[in-house]
Amino acid sequence: MKKIIYSSIIAGCAFIISLSSCADYLDVEYIFKDQQDIEGTFASKDYSEQWLADVYSRLSDGENVIVASKGHQPFNFLADDMFFGDRGSTYEDLKNCKYNENDRQGSWNSCYEGIRNASTFIHNIDKNVEMTPIEILDNKAQARFLRAYYYWMLLRKYGPIPILDDEGLDHTLAYEALARPRNTYLECAEFIASEMALAAKDLLDTRTSREIARATKGAALAVRARVYLYAASPLFNGNSDTWASQLTDHSGRALISAQYNEELWAKAAAAAKEVIDLQVYRIHTAPFRAEDQGQSYPKTMIPPYHPQYSNASFPDGWKDIDPFESYREVFNGALPITSNSEMIFSRGVNTNSEDITIMLLHQTPRSLNGWNTHGVSLKHANTYYMNDGSDFHAYGKSDPREGRPEYELTADSEECRPLSSGVSKEYAGREARFYASIAYNGSIWECENAPESENKKYSQVFYWRGSQDGKLSTAPGFYIRTGLGIKKFNHPRDYFYSSQSFSGFPKVDIDIRYAEILLIYAEALNELNASYSIPNYLGNASIEVGRNISEMSKYMSQIRFRAGLVDLSNDVYANPTAFRKALKRERQLELFAETHRYYDLRRWKDAAIEETMPVWGCNMNMTEAQKEQFHMPVLVPSLPTIFIDKMYLWPLSHDELRRNKKLTQNPGWTSYD
User: Fold this and answer.
1) Nearest Cα residue to 344 out of 145, 214, 513, 210
2) 3-state DSSP of 371-400
């Protein structure tokens, strides 16, 4: 029998290496302390389950988490929407491309370790004598999902990567013979998609609460849709730019096709439609609230009247829902993960040192025992619609002051809810997602778990210079640079007694949700000029797709109705260019702070424009006595903006290039020699 390895391409020659796991998972290494052979290990149900649990554990390894604080997931903060102000010069260095080929490379090793262990499981689980045939099929499919998913994580970050032989590498060969070149982007995408289709055949439709973070049929099909979406996008499909032509393997073979292939959009649309047709998921909505239910749960902010949508129940309108609460509670822990109809795949509750709770700690104002360092650009805040679906002002212009409404302070009124006294009227009348996501100057933080003695249960937070949450000379890095913070993921009962003590709702690491699938479907349909017949994942039927305005509206409108917004106009749907612009905006708002924006701007080839635009914000040098000047936009020089072509993909480490002589570096980055 051949001895095989699956490592960080070629990281050693032992069949079993020491594995490090998160505290929530068992390390499979101890299984071999009694020198059990591979057959004995996989004959046992307990040992097999522990092995698979270890494969899952790689999802929580550092940079592999999806939504987390910047120590493990900096990509959530490096586009044009979010930023952080603490940790010295880290943000400036990352934004200015002052990182090197050996920085933040943990995901490469971790993912290939997951690939190796998943492959070992796939090729040995049939030996199990304690599992039922159904359990064996499901567990094998889970391992196949994970193996393909780890390849996907590598592909999204690094671009084309080596696909290993299915049964591993024979470590008895000469070291040079173990080298593997990079596959083309399309080869990687098709391999991942085919593996996800194969996994979906045997994965369960749903999971029990005990296994809620395990892969399902919908998760496999959803990743498949996402993979095809990226493969169809301009960066990887028909890209003839100099940068793309320089991305080659060791033999000079181009890894990105210069020839455009529209059928990839059709495959993305068909894959998304298969998730929709499962009828397992739906957009989450909260019921309409006719009266206040406490200060944290005001009566529903009813969108401006529309003769069609105001009188129709969801998903045809917003008559029976609360748009603000519908969006807010998807993320803030109010919903048990088993009750969230929108969740397709989640890592569960993160327990690493940079989890969502730690991210929330950095979003929380200093006056509420937080770090007060995560914020958003004025460009992002002004991208949100008004509640009637119109633009706030000057969307897309380089100078946010153009077309700006006259500054005015307003007291609390029915017209301007949910504003409180002393808040700029520019924050009135916005769409629901704005209030669920943005901590504007003068917004309320509820903190219901705060002790009565601290008088912080309903705190109005201002960012004027000299205030506790504003710019202070005694805490130069701990203020919101633009005067616009983040409320997403915050629950009204969340409260930090200190940086070490949190009383609030646990947050789940969101990976894939139904809203993303609807956006994928609409985006892919928009790019089609012809009709296509795409084989389904089972290979026993075909899915017919083409640019269909009614289909695009049917699913795009659900996302907008949940936010209390009118559907896009027929003119927008009829014009591919206009719809593409609207779709990009919708993804920016709907998927905010979920680590999509960084990659979206790259796959669209928009990063060279969007990430080089100056960052505007409130004038943080103004005090409360200078309210009007505070809200006059100014450039924020401490938030750099730069983009160069080599930033499309993360560099490969010099260590990997040394190990694998056939591995090539991404364009613009240096090799070890």
Assistant:
1) 513
2) CCCEEECHHHHCCCCECCCCCCCCCCCCCC
